[in-house]
Amino acid sequence: MAKQIRLNAFAMNCVAHQSPGLWTHPRDRTAEYNRLPYWIDLAKTLERGRFDGLFLADVLGVYDVYGNSPDAALRNAAQTPSNEPLLLLSAMAAVTKNLGFGVTSNLSFEPPYPFARRMSTLDHLTEGRIGWNVVTGYLDSAARGAGKDKQTGHDDRYDIADEYMEVVYKLWEGSWEDDAVLRDRKRGIFTDPSKVHRINHESANYRINNTIHLSEPSPQRTPVLYQAGTSPRGRQFAAKHAECVFMSGPSAKIIAPRVAAIRQEAAALGRDPAEILMFNMMTIILGNTEAEAAAKYADYRSHINPEGALALMSGWTGIDFSGYELDQQVRHVQNDAGRSALDNVTRGDPDRIWTVRDVIEHVGIGGAGPVVVGTPESVADKIEDWFEKTDVDGLNVAFAISPGDFEDIADMLVPELTKRGRYKSEYAKGTLREKLFGEGRARLDAPHPAAGYRVGKKG
After folding, report:
1. In the chain, what percentage of residues exceed pLDDT 90?
2. What is the pTM of this model?
3. Which domain of life is it from (predicted)?
4. Binding residue per annotation — 154?
Protein backbone atom coordinates (compact mmCIF):
# COMPACT_ATOMS: atom_id res chain seq x y z
CA MET A 1 0.00 0.00 0.00
CA ALA A 2 1.40 3.41 -0.95
CA LYS A 3 2.59 5.57 1.92
CA GLN A 4 0.10 8.21 3.02
CA ILE A 5 1.09 11.79 2.31
CA ARG A 6 1.14 14.10 5.32
CA LEU A 7 0.82 17.87 5.08
CA ASN A 8 1.87 20.63 7.43
CA ALA A 9 1.30 24.27 6.60
CA PHE A 10 4.54 26.22 6.98
CA ALA A 11 4.19 29.77 8.27
CA MET A 12 5.66 32.28 10.69
CA ASN A 13 4.22 35.04 12.86
CA CYS A 14 5.51 37.65 10.44
CA VAL A 15 4.89 39.10 6.97
CA ALA A 16 5.48 37.00 3.80
CA HIS A 17 7.75 34.41 5.53
CA GLN A 18 9.46 32.50 2.67
CA SER A 19 8.42 34.68 -0.28
CA PRO A 20 9.84 38.19 0.17
CA GLY A 21 7.79 40.82 -1.61
CA LEU A 22 4.63 38.74 -1.99
CA TRP A 23 2.93 40.65 0.81
CA THR A 24 2.31 43.32 -1.83
CA HIS A 25 0.04 40.97 -3.79
CA PRO A 26 -3.58 42.15 -3.53
CA ARG A 27 -4.80 38.70 -2.37
CA ASP A 28 -2.17 38.24 0.35
CA ARG A 29 -3.24 38.82 3.96
CA THR A 30 0.06 38.31 5.80
CA ALA A 31 0.33 42.03 6.57
CA GLU A 32 -2.45 41.17 9.06
CA TYR A 33 -0.08 38.80 10.88
CA ASN A 34 -0.50 40.84 14.10
CA ARG A 35 -4.28 40.32 14.28
CA LEU A 36 -6.03 37.18 15.47
CA PRO A 37 -8.70 37.03 12.71
CA TYR A 38 -6.00 36.19 10.14
CA TRP A 39 -4.71 33.26 12.20
CA ILE A 40 -8.19 32.02 13.15
CA ASP A 41 -9.23 31.98 9.49
CA LEU A 42 -6.02 30.16 8.54
CA ALA A 43 -6.55 27.51 11.24
CA LYS A 44 -10.09 26.85 10.04
CA THR A 45 -8.86 26.51 6.44
CA LEU A 46 -6.17 24.02 7.44
CA GLU A 47 -8.59 21.91 9.46
CA ARG A 48 -10.96 21.87 6.48
CA GLY A 49 -8.07 20.50 4.42
CA ARG A 50 -7.25 17.91 7.13
CA PHE A 51 -3.70 19.22 7.42
CA ASP A 52 -1.73 17.34 10.06
CA GLY A 53 -0.48 20.56 11.52
CA LEU A 54 0.53 24.17 11.30
CA PHE A 55 4.32 24.31 11.54
CA LEU A 56 5.28 27.74 12.84
CA ALA A 57 8.82 28.87 12.20
CA ASP A 58 10.47 31.48 14.39
CA VAL A 59 13.72 33.42 14.27
CA LEU A 60 15.18 35.36 17.16
CA GLY A 61 17.15 38.31 15.87
CA VAL A 62 17.02 40.34 12.70
CA TYR A 63 18.56 39.51 9.31
CA ASP A 64 21.38 42.05 9.35
CA VAL A 65 24.13 40.20 7.48
CA TYR A 66 23.18 41.70 4.09
CA GLY A 67 25.03 45.01 3.86
CA ASN A 68 25.95 44.61 7.54
CA SER A 69 22.64 46.29 8.30
CA PRO A 70 19.01 45.42 9.14
CA ASP A 71 17.76 47.98 6.60
CA ALA A 72 17.05 45.50 3.78
CA ALA A 73 15.14 43.18 6.12
CA LEU A 74 13.14 46.08 7.52
CA ARG A 75 12.42 47.62 4.14
CA ASN A 76 11.23 44.36 2.62
CA ALA A 77 9.64 42.65 5.66
CA ALA A 78 12.16 39.81 5.40
CA GLN A 79 10.87 37.97 8.48
CA THR A 80 11.00 41.34 10.25
CA PRO A 81 8.92 42.40 12.13
CA SER A 82 8.02 39.10 13.73
CA ASN A 83 5.98 38.24 16.80
CA GLU A 84 6.14 35.42 19.33
CA PRO A 85 4.48 32.29 17.86
CA LEU A 86 3.37 30.53 21.06
CA LEU A 87 0.79 33.19 21.84
CA LEU A 88 -1.16 32.36 18.68
CA LEU A 89 -1.89 28.77 19.58
CA SER A 90 -4.68 28.98 22.15
CA ALA A 91 -6.83 31.06 19.81
CA MET A 92 -6.28 28.67 16.89
CA ALA A 93 -6.83 25.61 19.07
CA ALA A 94 -10.15 27.05 20.24
CA VAL A 95 -11.56 27.05 16.68
CA THR A 96 -10.22 23.60 15.70
CA LYS A 97 -10.46 20.08 17.09
CA ASN A 98 -7.75 18.12 15.28
CA LEU A 99 -5.16 20.46 13.80
CA GLY A 100 -1.73 20.00 15.34
CA PHE A 101 0.70 22.82 16.10
CA GLY A 102 4.45 22.45 15.70
CA VAL A 103 5.99 25.60 17.10
CA THR A 104 9.61 26.69 16.90
CA SER A 105 11.35 27.82 20.06
CA ASN A 106 15.04 28.60 20.33
CA LEU A 107 16.54 26.87 23.34
CA SER A 108 19.74 28.94 23.22
CA PHE A 109 17.98 31.89 24.88
CA GLU A 110 15.15 30.21 26.80
CA PRO A 111 15.78 28.78 30.30
CA PRO A 112 14.41 25.22 30.45
CA TYR A 113 12.41 25.59 33.69
CA PRO A 114 9.88 28.24 32.52
CA PHE A 115 9.89 26.89 28.97
CA ALA A 116 8.86 23.41 30.14
CA ARG A 117 5.86 24.90 31.96
CA ARG A 118 4.86 26.96 28.91
CA MET A 119 4.79 23.88 26.67
CA SER A 120 2.94 21.77 29.23
CA THR A 121 0.34 24.53 29.53
CA LEU A 122 -0.18 24.55 25.76
CA ASP A 123 -0.39 20.76 25.67
CA HIS A 124 -3.18 20.96 28.27
CA LEU A 125 -5.07 23.76 26.53
CA THR A 126 -4.91 22.08 23.11
CA GLU A 127 -5.72 18.62 24.55
CA GLY A 128 -2.43 17.22 23.36
CA ARG A 129 -1.92 18.85 19.99
CA ILE A 130 1.44 20.52 20.62
CA GLY A 131 4.80 19.86 19.00
CA TRP A 132 8.10 21.65 19.57
CA ASN A 133 10.53 22.38 16.75
CA VAL A 134 13.86 22.34 18.59
CA VAL A 135 16.29 24.93 17.22
CA THR A 136 19.52 26.47 18.45
CA GLY A 137 19.54 29.65 16.31
CA TYR A 138 21.97 30.95 13.72
CA LEU A 139 21.97 34.77 13.96
CA ASP A 140 24.57 36.82 15.81
CA SER A 141 21.90 39.53 16.16
CA ALA A 142 19.93 37.19 18.44
CA ALA A 143 23.00 36.55 20.58
CA ARG A 144 23.61 40.29 20.89
CA GLY A 145 20.00 40.76 21.96
CA ALA A 146 20.66 38.23 24.73
CA GLY A 147 23.77 40.07 25.92
CA LYS A 148 26.42 38.03 24.11
CA ASP A 149 28.93 39.25 21.55
CA LYS A 150 28.15 36.49 19.07
CA GLN A 151 26.43 33.14 18.86
CA THR A 152 28.01 29.98 20.21
CA GLY A 153 29.81 27.79 17.66
CA HIS A 154 27.60 25.61 15.44
CA ASP A 155 28.43 22.16 16.84
CA ASP A 156 28.78 23.51 20.39
CA ARG A 157 25.16 24.70 20.18
CA TYR A 158 24.05 21.12 19.64
CA ASP A 159 26.11 19.91 22.60
CA ILE A 160 24.28 22.46 24.73
CA ALA A 161 20.99 21.34 23.19
CA ASP A 162 21.62 17.74 24.26
CA GLU A 163 21.99 18.97 27.85
CA TYR A 164 18.85 21.10 27.53
CA MET A 165 16.83 18.12 26.37
CA GLU A 166 17.89 16.11 29.40
CA VAL A 167 16.64 18.89 31.68
CA VAL A 168 13.22 19.25 30.05
CA TYR A 169 12.80 15.46 29.85
CA LYS A 170 13.36 15.29 33.60
CA LEU A 171 10.76 18.02 34.16
CA TRP A 172 8.13 16.69 31.76
CA GLU A 173 8.58 12.99 32.49
CA GLY A 174 10.23 12.64 35.90
CA SER A 175 8.58 15.09 38.25
CA TRP A 176 4.90 14.06 38.44
CA GLU A 177 3.55 10.53 38.40
CA ASP A 178 0.51 10.00 36.21
CA ASP A 179 -1.79 9.44 39.20
CA ALA A 180 -0.39 12.24 41.37
CA VAL A 181 -3.40 14.49 40.81
CA LEU A 182 -6.42 13.17 42.75
CA ARG A 183 -8.97 16.01 42.52
CA ASP A 184 -10.55 14.45 45.61
CA ARG A 185 -13.29 16.85 46.68
CA LYS A 186 -14.41 14.75 49.67
CA ARG A 187 -11.00 14.70 51.33
CA GLY A 188 -10.02 18.11 49.99
CA ILE A 189 -6.82 16.76 48.46
CA PHE A 190 -5.93 17.91 44.99
CA THR A 191 -2.45 16.36 44.63
CA ASP A 192 -0.74 13.51 46.47
CA PRO A 193 2.64 15.02 47.43
CA SER A 194 4.27 11.59 47.62
CA LYS A 195 3.83 11.24 43.86
CA VAL A 196 5.51 14.52 42.94
CA HIS A 197 9.29 14.35 42.75
CA ARG A 198 11.95 16.99 42.92
CA ILE A 199 14.31 17.34 40.00
CA ASN A 200 18.04 17.86 40.23
CA HIS A 201 20.37 18.46 37.34
CA GLU A 202 23.88 19.82 37.08
CA SER A 203 25.87 19.95 33.86
CA ALA A 204 28.22 22.29 32.07
CA ASN A 205 25.42 24.67 31.06
CA TYR A 206 22.38 23.99 33.26
CA ARG A 207 21.69 23.59 36.95
CA ILE A 208 18.32 22.78 38.50
CA ASN A 209 18.35 22.35 42.24
CA ASN A 210 15.69 20.35 44.07
CA THR A 211 12.68 21.69 42.16
CA ILE A 212 9.40 20.34 40.83
CA HIS A 213 7.83 20.90 37.43
CA LEU A 214 4.99 23.37 37.90
CA SER A 215 2.49 21.64 35.62
CA GLU A 216 0.67 18.39 36.23
CA PRO A 217 1.19 15.76 33.50
CA SER A 218 -0.26 16.92 30.20
CA PRO A 219 -1.78 14.58 27.61
CA GLN A 220 1.54 14.02 25.85
CA ARG A 221 3.91 15.03 28.67
CA THR A 222 6.74 15.73 26.22
CA PRO A 223 5.43 17.56 23.13
CA VAL A 224 5.96 15.95 19.74
CA LEU A 225 9.58 16.73 18.91
CA TYR A 226 10.53 18.28 15.59
CA GLN A 227 14.06 19.15 14.52
CA ALA A 228 15.18 21.16 11.54
CA GLY A 229 18.95 20.82 11.07
CA THR A 230 20.54 18.47 8.54
CA SER A 231 24.20 19.28 9.08
CA PRO A 232 26.22 16.26 10.32
CA ARG A 233 25.85 17.41 13.95
CA GLY A 234 22.21 18.25 13.36
CA ARG A 235 21.60 14.75 12.03
CA GLN A 236 23.09 13.25 15.18
CA PHE A 237 20.76 15.35 17.30
CA ALA A 238 17.77 14.39 15.16
CA ALA A 239 18.59 10.69 15.28
CA LYS A 240 18.61 10.81 19.08
CA HIS A 241 15.70 13.13 19.84
CA ALA A 242 13.46 13.94 16.87
CA GLU A 243 10.16 12.31 16.03
CA CYS A 244 9.72 14.52 12.96
CA VAL A 245 12.47 16.16 10.93
CA PHE A 246 11.99 19.22 8.75
CA MET A 247 14.43 19.70 5.90
CA SER A 248 14.67 21.96 2.89
CA GLY A 249 16.38 21.59 -0.43
CA PRO A 250 15.72 22.45 -4.06
CA SER A 251 15.79 18.92 -5.50
CA ALA A 252 15.19 15.26 -4.72
CA LYS A 253 18.88 14.67 -5.36
CA ILE A 254 19.65 16.79 -2.28
CA ILE A 255 16.80 15.60 -0.04
CA ALA A 256 17.08 11.83 -0.54
CA PRO A 257 20.58 11.35 0.95
CA ARG A 258 19.68 13.54 3.94
CA VAL A 259 16.63 11.38 4.65
CA ALA A 260 18.68 8.22 4.34
CA ALA A 261 21.45 9.55 6.59
CA ILE A 262 19.10 10.40 9.45
CA ARG A 263 17.29 7.07 9.21
CA GLN A 264 20.63 5.26 9.27
CA GLU A 265 21.83 7.14 12.35
CA ALA A 266 18.52 6.54 14.14
CA ALA A 267 18.75 2.80 13.45
CA ALA A 268 22.25 2.78 14.90
CA LEU A 269 20.77 4.16 18.14
CA GLY A 270 18.18 1.37 18.27
CA ARG A 271 15.26 3.49 17.05
CA ASP A 272 12.90 2.42 14.29
CA PRO A 273 14.07 4.55 11.33
CA ALA A 274 10.62 4.38 9.72
CA GLU A 275 9.15 6.12 12.77
CA ILE A 276 11.09 9.32 12.26
CA LEU A 277 8.77 11.25 9.99
CA MET A 278 10.56 13.36 7.38
CA PHE A 279 8.93 16.55 6.12
CA ASN A 280 10.48 18.65 3.40
CA MET A 281 9.49 22.12 2.32
CA MET A 282 7.54 22.60 -0.91
CA THR A 283 5.48 25.44 -2.35
CA ILE A 284 2.39 24.42 -4.34
CA ILE A 285 0.65 26.69 -6.83
CA LEU A 286 -2.57 25.35 -8.32
CA GLY A 287 -4.86 26.16 -11.21
CA ASN A 288 -7.84 24.51 -12.88
CA THR A 289 -5.71 24.24 -16.04
CA GLU A 290 -1.96 24.22 -16.62
CA ALA A 291 -2.25 27.62 -18.29
CA GLU A 292 -4.13 29.06 -15.33
CA ALA A 293 -1.53 27.73 -12.88
CA ALA A 294 1.33 29.08 -14.99
CA ALA A 295 -0.32 32.49 -15.20
CA LYS A 296 -0.82 32.55 -11.43
CA TYR A 297 2.86 31.66 -10.92
CA ALA A 298 3.96 34.41 -13.31
CA ASP A 299 1.76 36.88 -11.45
CA TYR A 300 3.32 35.86 -8.15
CA ARG A 301 6.83 36.20 -9.56
CA SER A 302 6.17 39.78 -10.55
CA HIS A 303 5.99 40.59 -6.81
CA ILE A 304 9.36 39.03 -5.83
CA ASN A 305 11.69 41.43 -4.06
CA PRO A 306 15.33 40.60 -4.95
CA GLU A 307 16.83 42.56 -2.07
CA GLY A 308 14.51 40.82 0.37
CA ALA A 309 15.50 37.43 -1.05
CA LEU A 310 19.20 38.17 -0.59
CA ALA A 311 18.58 39.54 2.92
CA LEU A 312 17.05 36.17 3.83
CA MET A 313 19.79 34.14 2.19
CA SER A 314 22.50 36.25 3.81
CA GLY A 315 20.94 35.60 7.21
CA TRP A 316 20.55 31.88 6.60
CA THR A 317 24.13 31.41 5.39
CA GLY A 318 26.10 34.12 7.19
CA ILE A 319 27.36 35.44 3.83
CA ASP A 320 26.88 39.08 2.87
CA PHE A 321 25.52 38.91 -0.67
CA SER A 322 25.36 42.69 -1.04
CA GLY A 323 28.87 42.78 -2.49
CA TYR A 324 28.27 40.02 -5.06
CA GLU A 325 27.58 40.52 -8.74
CA LEU A 326 24.37 38.90 -10.00
CA ASP A 327 26.25 36.40 -12.19
CA GLN A 328 28.90 35.61 -9.58
CA GLN A 329 29.12 31.98 -8.51
CA VAL A 330 28.17 31.12 -4.94
CA ARG A 331 30.91 29.16 -3.21
CA HIS A 332 31.02 27.29 0.08
CA VAL A 333 32.11 29.10 3.23
CA GLN A 334 32.43 27.43 6.64
CA ASN A 335 30.95 29.55 9.45
CA ASP A 336 28.65 29.32 12.46
CA ALA A 337 25.42 30.21 10.66
CA GLY A 338 22.97 27.59 9.40
CA ARG A 339 24.80 25.04 7.28
CA SER A 340 22.01 23.44 5.25
CA ALA A 341 20.92 26.51 3.26
CA LEU A 342 24.43 27.09 1.96
CA ASP A 343 25.02 23.41 1.23
CA ASN A 344 21.87 23.46 -0.92
CA VAL A 345 23.48 25.87 -3.40
CA THR A 346 27.14 24.92 -3.14
CA ARG A 347 27.62 21.21 -2.40
CA GLY A 348 24.22 19.52 -2.41
CA ASP A 349 24.02 19.00 -6.17
CA PRO A 350 27.43 18.61 -7.85
CA ASP A 351 25.79 18.89 -11.27
CA ARG A 352 24.61 22.45 -10.73
CA ILE A 353 26.50 25.72 -10.34
CA TRP A 354 24.52 28.47 -8.63
CA THR A 355 24.92 32.19 -9.24
CA VAL A 356 23.55 35.00 -7.10
CA ARG A 357 20.86 35.54 -9.74
CA ASP A 358 19.85 31.87 -9.37
CA VAL A 359 19.61 32.32 -5.59
CA ILE A 360 17.24 35.27 -6.02
CA GLU A 361 15.06 33.32 -8.44
CA HIS A 362 14.98 30.32 -6.12
CA VAL A 363 14.49 32.07 -2.77
CA GLY A 364 12.04 34.62 -4.19
CA ILE A 365 9.10 32.22 -3.90
CA GLY A 366 9.12 29.36 -1.45
CA GLY A 367 12.49 29.98 0.17
CA ALA A 368 14.82 27.01 -0.03
CA GLY A 369 12.35 24.41 -1.29
CA PRO A 370 10.99 23.40 -4.70
CA VAL A 371 7.98 25.08 -6.27
CA VAL A 372 5.42 22.80 -7.95
CA VAL A 373 2.97 24.41 -10.36
CA GLY A 374 0.01 22.84 -12.17
CA THR A 375 -3.45 21.32 -11.96
CA PRO A 376 -4.41 19.17 -8.96
CA GLU A 377 -3.81 16.08 -11.10
CA SER A 378 -0.34 17.06 -12.35
CA VAL A 379 0.76 18.38 -8.97
CA ALA A 380 -0.38 15.14 -7.31
CA ASP A 381 1.69 13.23 -9.88
CA LYS A 382 4.76 15.33 -9.07
CA ILE A 383 4.29 14.94 -5.32
CA GLU A 384 3.96 11.16 -5.63
CA ASP A 385 7.11 11.06 -7.74
CA TRP A 386 8.91 13.20 -5.15
CA PHE A 387 7.88 10.82 -2.36
CA GLU A 388 9.17 7.82 -4.30
CA LYS A 389 12.53 9.48 -4.99
CA THR A 390 13.16 10.91 -1.53
CA ASP A 391 11.45 8.56 0.99
CA VAL A 392 9.96 11.55 2.84
CA ASP A 393 6.76 11.17 4.83
CA GLY A 394 5.24 14.58 4.36
CA LEU A 395 5.53 18.15 3.16
CA ASN A 396 5.86 21.39 5.05
CA VAL A 397 3.92 23.47 2.57
CA ALA A 398 5.20 27.03 2.25
CA PHE A 399 3.13 29.67 0.48
CA ALA A 400 3.48 32.48 -1.98
CA ILE A 401 0.31 34.15 -0.72
CA SER A 402 -1.71 33.29 2.36
CA PRO A 403 -4.28 32.07 3.04
CA GLY A 404 -5.12 31.76 -0.69
CA ASP A 405 -2.57 29.05 -1.50
CA PHE A 406 -3.72 26.96 1.48
CA GLU A 407 -7.35 27.39 0.43
CA ASP A 408 -6.42 26.06 -3.02
CA ILE A 409 -4.69 23.04 -1.49
CA ALA A 410 -7.65 22.29 0.80
CA ASP A 411 -10.22 22.64 -1.96
CA MET A 412 -8.34 21.33 -5.01
CA LEU A 413 -5.32 19.18 -4.14
CA VAL A 414 -6.59 17.37 -1.04
CA PRO A 415 -9.62 15.88 -2.87
CA GLU A 416 -7.29 14.60 -5.61
CA LEU A 417 -4.83 13.02 -3.16
CA THR A 418 -7.74 11.52 -1.20
CA LYS A 419 -9.21 10.02 -4.37
CA ARG A 420 -5.84 8.34 -5.03
CA GLY A 421 -5.77 6.84 -1.55
CA ARG A 422 -2.71 8.88 -0.63
CA TYR A 423 -4.37 11.18 1.91
CA LYS A 424 -6.49 10.55 5.00
CA SER A 425 -10.26 10.77 4.55
CA GLU A 426 -10.65 11.83 8.18
CA TYR A 427 -8.49 12.69 11.15
CA ALA A 428 -7.37 9.93 13.48
CA LYS A 429 -8.46 10.20 17.09
CA GLY A 430 -6.28 11.32 19.97
CA THR A 431 -3.33 13.59 20.54
CA LEU A 432 -0.98 14.87 17.86
CA ARG A 433 1.44 12.04 18.62
CA GLU A 434 -1.37 9.48 18.28
CA LYS A 435 -2.50 11.03 15.01
CA LEU A 436 1.05 10.69 13.69
CA PHE A 437 2.07 7.34 15.18
CA GLY A 438 -1.06 5.46 16.21
CA GLU A 439 -3.76 5.20 18.84
CA GLY A 440 -2.55 4.61 22.38
CA ARG A 441 0.81 6.28 21.77
CA ALA A 442 0.22 9.66 23.38
CA ARG A 443 3.49 9.34 25.30
CA LEU A 444 7.02 8.67 24.12
CA ASP A 445 8.18 5.08 24.45
CA ALA A 446 11.60 3.47 24.75
CA PRO A 447 14.12 3.60 23.18
CA HIS A 448 13.48 7.32 22.96
CA PRO A 449 15.60 8.89 25.74
CA ALA A 450 12.68 10.85 27.22
CA ALA A 451 10.89 7.65 28.20
CA GLY A 452 13.75 6.70 30.50
CA TYR A 453 13.00 9.61 32.82
CA ARG A 454 9.32 8.81 33.42
CA VAL A 455 8.35 7.88 36.98
CA GLY A 456 5.44 5.96 38.43
CA LYS A 457 2.55 4.62 36.39
CA LYS A 458 3.30 4.52 32.69
CA GLY A 459 0.95 6.33 30.31
Report:
1. 76
2. 0.92
3. Bacteria
4. yes
